[in-house]
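pasting for ref. prot 1 ->
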Amino acid sequence: MMKKYLAVLLSMVMVLGLLTGCGSNAPAPSSTTPESSSSAPAEAETSGAENEAPAETVTKLDGYKIGAVYVNGAGAMFEAADKTLRDLCASTGAEYVTATLAGYDDAAFISAYESLIDQGCDGVMVYTFSEGPISLIADMLDEADVDWFLLNRRISDDALREKVFSMKNFVGNSYCEEEQNAYDMVCELNKELGVKNLAVIGLAQGDLNGDLRDKGIARACEDCGVNLLTETRGIATVDDVTNAVEGIIATYPEVDGIFIVGGVVTTGALAGAAQALSNHGLSDKVSIAMVDISAGMSEYMGEGQPLKLVTGGNLVMDNILAGVGLINHAMGVNVDAEPYIVNTHMMSIRTPEDAKDYDEYCENPNQPVISGQAWFDTVIGQPLEKIVAFASDFSIEYAKSLHQ
């Protein structure tokens, strides 16, 4: 596959460099210098050992093919990730291909990754809704000698984690600390907004990320002295949520907080919960916190509105890190290190202005989050420590600075 030829080519370049000596000013064969751009923020600068090689000179990956699963109809988040990945591959000379899911069960994911292998991918970004198909997908990619990066999924099963991290083609893993994020949100509801009686609109049990969020909520309620009144699951429509919140208000008139756990129900859950609160004149008396980004958030935020705290945006960053990890690996960067492990922190949205800036700079299907030279100034060709710091420090303001 293409990566084998790249490895040979990189070795030849290193040997030629040694033979020609340190005084040569000629660029190494198969290298390129991307066009300069003013979009890179000042905080991307580093010094010392992390800058041993200039970030702007990297090996082109002409012919290297990266594959990803595309979740059709899933909204701006996946469209923004797709747009950003296309820019990443165009900036580094890689080819980008996708396989669209035919459904949302394990079999659909397995079929999609089979399609990416059949398309001749050299590296694949692996994203699944559950842990179930990971072992089989890993075996498929290993047998096909395809590098892969697991994104947005922290493996909970010890045996599976040990298997995956020992595989020769496994490049890395990015995920969010879901439990801690939910814990912090409940603590903020309590300490900053005075919430004492909380109702939860949750995901179906068995969703790994949802279960972790539930654990964080329960732990925070115990630590902060918040009463966890009730949990509602199996939500499918806006009307379902409106009816559920109507029932919560009737049964627990003391409710002063609602936590929407997130996932595919988020947009409907927010609209439904807001409608129920408005029906009872409680829009300014009950605070809503929500995990995962929802379209039209800004209209529910601000003075007299219920939505006080939203966290999310990590899935776009997960996709960025997966693509970057595969490209760096193919370029020979960080290849001697252990597999990447990067925590993608969720961004916090507390005001209508935050929501609008997030939509414009972090989840805009019409423009990449990062583009052109900024890739090389921040993550491409950079050591793992700098990439981890980039993910940790990324914020709405930082994303905004990349476009100014």
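and prot 2 ->
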Amino acid sequence: MNALPSPDTRSDTLCAVDPLQVLVYADSLSWGIVPGTRQRLPWPVRWPGRLELALNGAIAKGQRPVRILEDCLNGRRTVWDDPFKPGRNGIQGLAQRIEMHSPLALVILMLGSNDFQSMHPHHAWHAAQGIGALLDTIRGAPIEPGMPVPPVLVLVPPPITTPRGPLAPKFAGGEHKCVGLAQAFQEVCRARGRDCFDTGTVIHSSEVDGVHLDAADHIALGDALVPVVNALLVPMRA
């Protein structure tokens, strides 16, 4: 059996250069659940996969590729517990995830939709305060000495529309609770000097269930994020 060529002799740039790691910390909207089912969209269609493929598609020689780490848990809230399923509180274990995956070039947060499930009384302000707590947790994560605290890009989930199908009872009233989410997120991010992108400007919730994203919206979001993420990574990719 022939030995694999050493990284410094490979012509493939993606194999020869240590990639920049980007952590996507999110919920089922990013996990890629197919609306109305319990199935999952394939990786190249899900927006994190689409984004990684695009960022690495025209990579220049010597430029660092990007590796996106998907940490997307169905039902994850910002800082609240799910009374029916354990482990859905987004702040629990977040600092350790940052420590575990360091060094990170960027963290992308896309949470908030599950804060509006019917068992919670929360509105946009509450979800935004949850995002603020997550940002503070990332800043204070116990990373190794000398490793950088990663920048964070907060994605505002698209507004919930009328919940339909099996999700209707779980998200009843969510379309009213989420009103003003983009503005609330932007205020929290501005106060902490973090970047914020309103996904509702480029995509919308599926008409099938009113909450999740259709395949076309995953693709549209991945494409829309390419210049945004690339601009944040440019200083580190050389």
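The beta strands are 20-26, 66-72, 106-110, 152-156, 195-198.
The chain has eight helices and five strands.
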